Amino acid sequence: MFSYYSWLGFRSLRRNLWLTGLMILILSVGVAASVSTLTILHMMSADPIPEKSTKLFIPILDNGPANDFKPGDRYIDEQMSYRDVHALLNSAIGKYRTGLYGISALIEMPRKDLGVIEVEGMAASRDFFPMMQVPMLYGERWSVADEKNGADVVVLSRKTSEKMFGTENPVGRMATMWGRSYLIAGVMDTWRPLPRFYRFNGRGSAFMSEESFIVPFESAIRNQTPHSGGMSCTERSGPGWQALLDSECTWLTFWIEMNSASERGQLASFLDAYVSEQQKMGRFPRHAPNLLFDVHGWLQELKIVGNDEKMSIWLALGFLMLCMVNTIGLLLAKFSGRAAEIGVRRALGASRRQIFFQALVETGVVGMVGAFSAILLSVLFLKLISLQAGYLKAVARMDWEMLLLTVVMSVVAALLAGLLPTWRACQITPAIQLKSQ
User: Fold this and answer.
1) What does the alpha-carbon distance between residue 162 and residue 173 come to, in Å, rounded to a whole number?
2) Of 1-10, 48-57, 72-81, 381-390, highest mean pLDDT
3) Which residue has the higher pLDDT, 436 or 144?
4) Residue 69: what pLDDT?
5) Strand pairing of 213-216 and 291-294?
6) Where are the beta strands (DSSP E) in 96-233?
7) What is the DSSP letter of 209?
8) pLDDT > 80? residue 307
9) DSSP H helical segments within 45-177, as ranges?
10) Cα(68)–Cα(341) distance, integer angstroms
11) For residue 235, what are the CA distances in angstroms to 247, 278, 316?
12) Residue of 153, 161, 174 whose CA lies nearest to 117
């Protein structure tokens, strides 16, 4: 019976093309507006590393001066001083540890006539690769010896490698960066966790930037490679690179991976003990509590999904409700025009339940047809959103979950909008309709 009613529903679409087309259009626009905003929220709030998000931690250690601090103040600075990052890297806590900071570089192209390219990259410890599950296209990360010696080696992104060498394997060749020669140890395959949680420099950077290259952390320190990003200095003493390393300036980021989420308490105790030892040497005068965030907690702290995105969802859902109200009016007009047909069916023995079910299936067919146009409109709306804000281009795309949601939302919206019209249709009295014929 369901298949028969569905066939009748598709046939009914041709009875009044203008009315049917208007219903489908109104419903599709409302669903597409809601789905496009939900898609942005869905992609922005996605887990960038689901296999490890509960085992990766970023510690927050407040090394600021005591003269501008009041007990109870909550100061969040994800960056650390070189002294603290160096000490934590050389500790034995955790499975993997990495210090990192952003850098930019001018890379000379192999062909001199092509000039140079300016790219954004990062200096990081070799543990960064297994910690963040960075896939390799060619080669591998640099060796332990290169890490220890701060050797001039580099891992390129796939995009940067193809700009320089095309599709050939460049491992073992040299790349000239900052006027120095770097041995290419490997090439990363396409890798872009969204949002970029491990190095945050504003919401835009969380969705726009990707690492064009990675050099060893110790190599960047040895070569005095300047950082690209923010720096907080309260008591910097003296000029020069070594003065920066010895200062309390915070400009580096540190991440640590534990074997399991249950070791969080162990890590917290280690950090407390470390800060306590440093306080004996006159550091960390604020005596502020140390904070520890896993990936989920850190993204919430950063407020990746802002109030504007949340408000836009409510507005879109309100617009969908308005579209459903208009659809209800059109469905009422459609079924009232078929009152005579429904009266004849009732006189021939059809029950109200059968009339209600048939009419509801017909509205579901409208929702199914509207789902396809809603998908097309959603893609169009997402394209327009990406043009308005460049950093949203990476998240303004639909995955299979949102495609399925579009179909479900369209059908459910049509069924909800059809409840009142179908109930009114099954209340038609056969005798009155027959007398009027």
Assistant:
1) 14
2) 48-57
3) 144
4) 72
5) unpaired
6) 96-108, 116-124, 136-139, 153-157, 174-177, 180-188, 213-216
7) -
8) no
9) 82-89, 128-131, 144-149, 158-165
10) 81
11) 7, 17, 49
12) 161
Distance CA 62, CA 231 (A): 14
> Could you tell me which residues come within 8 angstroms of residue 179 by beta carbon, excluding any fewer than 6 positions away?
none
Between helix 400-426 and helix 17-44 the angle, nearest 10°, is 140
| Model pLDDT, residue 431 | 47
What is the mean predicted confidence (pLDDT) over 413-432? Answer: 69
From residue 155, alpha-carbon distances to 9, 56, 193, 198, 212 in Å are 59, 23, 17, 18, 9
pLDDT value for 14: 63
pLDDT of 433 > 50? The answer is no
Average pLDDT over residues 148-168: 93
pLDDT digits (tens, 9 = 90+) for 337-388: 555 565 556 555 556 666 666 677 777 777 788 888 888 888 888 888 777 7
Contact between residue 403 and residue 42 where contact means Cβ atoms under 8 Å apart: no
Contact 229, 105 (CB under 8 A): no
Tokens of 370: 């509207």
Rounded CA gap, 417 and 403, in Å?
21
Question: Facing residues of 108 across strands?
Answer: 116, 176
CA distance 253 to 82: 9
Q: What are the tokens at 357?
A: 């079910």
Q: Domains of the chain: which residue ranges?
A: 2-45+306-436, 77-302
Token digits of residue 156: 């390129």
In this prediction, residue 89 carries a pLDDT of 95
